[in-house]
Design goal:
This protein is an alpha/beta fold. The chain contains nine helices and 15 strands. It folds into two domains: 2-122 and 300-329, Medium-chain alcohol dehydrogenases, catalytic domain (Quinone Oxidoreductase, Chain A, domain 1), CATH 3.90.180; 126-275, NAD(P)-binding Rossmann-like Domain (Rossmann fold). The radius of gyration is 20 Å and the shape is globular. The chain binds NADPH dihydro-nicotinamide-adenine-dinucleotide phosphate.
Length: 330
């Protein structure tokens, strides 16, 4: 079977040389194991962090080993009770191989009759749940409040804005192009969209947020966040979801700038990691699934065709190649 191997640790922005496509032989499945064929593979910004040799909430990738991530797969053969050939399963940390032998405990069955299987990597999976938990638990939105989202046209951000709208908030999205801005207002129903690559971010933000900003859902950090922080209201909440603008930095590009404002305006800022909220996933799915089914939350996907596209798709996240969730279809 084919495998994508982590060939070298990058410094700064990675390129294709850190990946190697190899043929590997798979061991036979033992008792309690499944043989799977990958259908849809998730690429996610956090994988950049796993490329560094640094202690974090997930162990670093090991050079010479397969990369791994969220995969929706079909069971080819089963030596585990409760799994039959043809079942469709989701594993959050499965190897980047076209087929794989894994313990049944590494996956869970998904119901492909509720939604297309790839949705379990996005709006009904890790990124949708991240939007839900971060916005609800830390953002605590109230109707009429203004919610600003950075990385708004991506997998997490697009769902944050749509939940905010559903709850009666004003949703303002920040993304990297006018085309993405159109997607935000025309498809996802944001009230306003701002292209951070155009000059005048401060002015355009204040025009889009005439009542200031009550919640800033931060996916990107850096200069975009500097601009939003200045416009936060008293008692604003800032769910810190990600800082993608810094993931490839070799040293932190900005110093602390916001803490003074946080004091005087009594702002709450809190980071969170979705995998610590597993006990809430069912609640999140129960909230999201009916809205997705009713078309009130739209799922946009950018799908690259072919297992070998995984490296390119992953790197594409750092230059904004995706609209909505970036997926690779085997
Ligand atoms: P996205 O689908 O949003 O893809 C990444 C997007 O980031 C790109 O499309 C691009 O959009 C934007 N981007 C890339 N580089 C920069 C930059 N230098 N400055 C500003 N924007 C940039 O990814 P996800 O929705 O999966 O993840 C979004 C964020 O949420 C990430 O920071 C990720 O690490 C984080 N995250 C955190 C989780 C948690 O548990 N806390 C769980 C899941 C995700 P554009 O064209 O607009 O620049």
């Amino acid at each position: 079977v084919k495998q994508i191997t982590f060939a070298a640790r990058p410094s700064g922005l990675p390129d294709a040389s850190i990946f190697r496509i190899e043929e590997v032989a798979l061991p036979d499945a033992k008792e309690g194991e499944l043989r799977l064929r990958g259908l849809f593979y998730s690429v996610d910004p956090y994988m950049r962090g796993r490329m560094n040799d640094a202690k974090s909430y997930v162990p670093p990738f090991q050079v010479g080993q397969a990369l791994e991530g969220g995969v929706v797969a079909e069971v080819i053969s089963s030596r585990a009770t409760g799994f039959e050939p043809g079942d469709v399963v989701l594993g959050p940390y499965l190897p980047w191989r076209t087929e794989m032998t894994v313990p049944a405990t590494a996956v869970q069955k998904i119901d492909a009759s509720i939604a297309p299987p790839s949705y379990y990597l996005g709006v009904l999976g890790m990124t949708g749940l991240t939007a839900y938990i971060g916005l609800m638990d830390i953002g605590k939105p109230k109707p009429g409040e203004t919610v600003v989202v950075s990385g708004a046209a991506g997998a997490v951000g697009s769902v944050v804005g749509q939940i905010a709208k559903h709850l009666g908030c004003r949703a303002v999205g920040i993304a990297g192009s006018d085309e993405k801005g159109k997607l935000l207002t025309e498809t996802f129903g944001f009230d306003a969209a701002i292209n951070y690559n155009e000059p005048g971010l401060d002015d355009r933000l204040s025009t889009a947020c005439p009542n200031g900003v009550d919640i800033y859902f931060d996916n990107v950090g850096g200069e975009v966040s500097d601009a939003v922080m200045k416009q936060l209201n008293f008692f604003a909440r800032v769910p810190l979801c990600g800082q993608i603008s810094m993931y490839n930095a070799t040293k932190p590009p900005t110093g602390p700038r916001w803490q003074g404002l946080m004091v005087t305006r009594s702002i709450l800022m809190q980071g969170f990691i979705i995998r610590n909220y597993a006990a809430r996933f069912r609640e999140g799915i129960e909230f999201l699934a009916p809205l997705v089914k009713a078309g009130k939350i739209k799922s946009e996907e950018t799908v690259a065709e072919g297992f070998e596209k995984l490296p390119e798709a992953l790197l594409g996240l750092f230059s904004g190649k995706n609209k909505g969730k970036m997926i690779v279809k085997a």
